[in-house]
Amino acid sequence: MPKGPTKRRPQTTARLLAAAQETFAERGFYGSSIEVICERAGLTRGAFYSNFRTKEELFFALFDLHAQRVVDRLSAAVDELDAAEDPVRAVLRRMSALDEAERRWYLLSTEFTLHAIRHPATARSLAEHDRRLREEIVRLLGRLFDRLGRRPTVDLDSLARLTTAVHEGSLAQSLVEPDRLAPEELAVTYLPLLVEAVSEPAATGRRTGS
């Protein structure tokens, strides 16, 4: 491949991702056409298909970018545990932080999840991306328990699924009733109790789970 296109490819990909983020936010996944995304990016359909095969593949590239931001944010929160007065709630507040970008992503990812449920092949792809993100969350949960001096007594993959479900369910309710429920309220109130219930002091006791 010529050197010119190779050097331009990352810039082209970045422009498509930025345009897709804006277009998906405005029109949703179904309402966003490849043509509109390309027009917003100032690129041709040929440029799109040299980077992505489908609109779904473009979504998954955005998923991976968002997943990395989530991991970076939570990793930073775990790193700061020693300086936090209430370590678990500090992490949960960071996890539940809601800004406009997070709100847009939630709306898009919820719509895409419904799309995936209707299309088994897409659901399998989404499950694989979710699995990779969950592996990072499991790693961070392990670090969290270590920093707290506690040993988990449950499977951390299942715990990661549960905490994700609480986070996403709380966010949905908060977006519907923003004046009644803060995005972090349920997680900050109840997940510390869960952390305590599914772990034991690392120096004593006998582990009862895997």
From TrEMBL:
Pfam families: TetR_C_6, TetR_N. InterPro entries: BetI_C, Homeodomain-like_sf, HTH-type_TetR-like_transc_reg, HTH_TetR, Tet_transcr_reg_TetR-rel_C_sf. Residues 33-52 bind DNA. Residues 10-70 form the HTH tetR-type domain. PANTHER family: HTH-TYPE TRANSCRIPTIONAL REGULATOR RUTR, TRANSCRIPTIONAL REGULATORY PROTEIN. GO terms for molecular function: DNA-binding transcription factor activity; transcription cis-regulatory region binding. The keyword Transcription regulation applies. This is TetR-family regulatory protein. Keywords: DNA-binding, Repressor, Transcription, Transcription regulation.
